[in-house]
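explain this chain.
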Amino acid sequence: MVDYTTCQNSGKGLVHGESPDDVVLHYFGCLKFSERADFLAELDETNKLKLRIREETKRIEKLRDIFEAEGPRTSSGKVLDSFKKTLSHWSGIKRSYTHLEGAIPDPGTLDGPEERAKEWILDDMRANVIYFKKHHEDDDNPGPYDHPAFVDNFPNQKISLKQLLSSDKEKNPLMWPCEPNMIRYFHLPANNMEWIEEAMARFYNEEIPDLNGPYRKARRGHPESKTRMLFRPQYWRGLQHGDRVDLPTHTRHMRPRCYRISTNHQSTETRPKNLALFMPYLHWETDRRRARAANIIGKYGPNRWSPMVEVVEEVRIPVIKSTIDRTTSDGFLEHITARTEIPRPNSATHKITHKTFQGQKLLGRLLFLAAALYEAMDAYTDEKIIERYLMGRPPLHPRRTLDQSYYWTLKDTSRRDRDQVVYRETAPSPKLVKAHHSCTKKDPTEKDKTCDQCLENVRKTPRVVMVDQLWMWVLDENTIITCFPKRWGKNKPDESAVQKCIRTRLREARIDEVRSVHDLALIIIDQCSRVFFDRTQPTDMQPQVMDAFANAIGRVTHKQTISFEHFWECTRMASKRYNDREEPDNGTSEKSQNVLLDINPEGELLREIRDIIDELFIMMQIKTQEQNVISTFVKHIKRLISPIRGGGENSIDNRSEHSLPGNRRPARPSLSFRNAPAIQFDHESETEDYDLTMTCAVELLESTENQLLELSYLKEAAENASLALKDLLDLKQQQAGVVEAREAVKQGEETLKQGRAIMLFTIVTIVFVSPAYHVHAPLTNITKLPLSFFTGVFGMNATNLTGTDGPNLWQWGDIFVFMIPISVLVTTISLLLAFSKLIRALLSFAFHISWTWLITHTPAYVSWRETTFT
């Protein structure tokens, strides 16, 4: 019995749970190094957990030897060297350090790097092997079978890839003949075309065909092998997209297809029993592991062969990085009500990374190096797979992100990957990360006590949606070979790993759930297609993608509602201020107009909701491809398992999958697959198996359709939010036109007032400004500007001023007789013409009437009228 009383506790329970199945994690994660030997000695020699511990220990020792041999030439060797140097300075474990020392292999005695990498990969990678078999002759259905040649029990039996791909007939289970009433399932943990070609050649006990020729045909004089027939271009390499060397590696994928393939090269089979299926499906990965995989792919991918001209162009024309920062839900109302004249900081989108630890504490450096060493050991096999097979012929197909699967022409999608909805929903909030050290929610009495909200935020792990591929072959109605990738660097699969889910489901399956190889194939397809649509709360880090999209759409909708309310409030305030102009303005009018003219908040919301719609569209496209492939697969197995035999394709029961009789649909959970075409039953049992299998196949199609419908509902909600934001922007644009019209009217009124003032100033200037007068100016000159007499009369040679008499001299009385009436008359007429609309209208009317009368009575007009109308 394992004692867990001294194990680490996470606050919600033990970090590795309380199940005896976690003894391996307990051994390496909780026990001191000095306690491990005693713990291992207490376990029985026949205990399988003890064997697992020893296997993991051997793996660690091999990796340590490899890192030692590589030395400072590789990053892994550098980390190990730094760890050992730091460990040597830690006095607390100097006694145990000798146990870590191992015999350092001489690099000169090892094979070349490529051979060593391939040897390590094939030894370290494990292929899952699952068997079903009828244990007795009177059994109706095949049941789980623990094959004696492999360790562990159903469905967890595994073998190394080296054994599965070897040409030794005694060791390779692919080359063993399949017993009657037996179903076999082999899984390869990567989309490696080279492994598949080798595995198929081993299955048919043939030589590995050379498919790299120009016509990909067998040599003259050599018959077509079954492997070559199975891998004809139209069924294999011809389906590969992105096979050119100059394209990015994420363009590689098999086009979604499902075929029935004949392997008989002598005559065409009327009912080919072999099925090949290529189907994309959605999965996930942490952003840190995705970024590490992208760096390794960039290191060993086609970019290392880029021409110098392209490199120079990339340096000469730098990439303009986006500086757009998404508006979060925190403080959105304050954001949209802020004054536009206040400059906003130019904040770029930052990647949340774990910076290299630079602390002065020796223990901190030791722990950091230990974590880095663990990460290097965990991902070493995956890195070597990319190094060895990425640019091979045939190549490895790496995992793709959601944007890489759709925008496959883009060379770099890292910024788009960190803009995914799932990434934003699972990443720590940048505001809370910055405010973590100055959090006011901490308990001042407890120095080391951390705020729960801050602690939960910093523990978040950003994740992204990935698009993986399922490659599946159903061979001879008794064997299935599949390959799809696992998560990056996961030596032990988590609960959301597809292969782990398949094994869990098969372990809990009913005794009659798998009757044939086609039932097992339907289970595999179903588990691949339902990764994000099983709403059971996951026990691992799998993101709830549908909830993430629903939350993102709901948040945008909430912000859009706030924007609408704020828009109408600002419109009401602006209208009230315009109607009540006499009230004092405290700045609210200007703020309201600034908000009405600022479209940045709504523009960012519109961009965010368009990104959501874009991602939902890509996911719907993936699901549509799944639906098409599954529909084709169901049609093929319908023809294969039809109870009407011997009549060819035309005699097959052509009932629609969606029209099966309701009384034949079993009242059991979804996908209760049953059928056994390889096992001989009577006609009645065969018909029942056919109906049940086809019913469950239709349920699989309906499940896929429901998943597609769920995505369409989310997309419809996002589109409604997008339309609402567009309506809001249109209203803002219309309101901006109203504001501009009001400002134009206001400006026109101000211009009119200024024009009147200028006119008055001009009139006063004309009337009151006096011209230059001569001493003996005649009276006619004096009266040209009447009001100038008020200032110029004292400069005249009036007899009352000079005291002299003369023939050209006037008395003041004579001057005022002309000056006063004329000045009053001219001033009155000028003011009336300047400020009276009625006078101007009457004068204009009189002028037009007079001018018209004058024109119509001229001889020329009379002559023209008589000439025209006669």
Remarks:
- The longest strand covers residues 274-286.
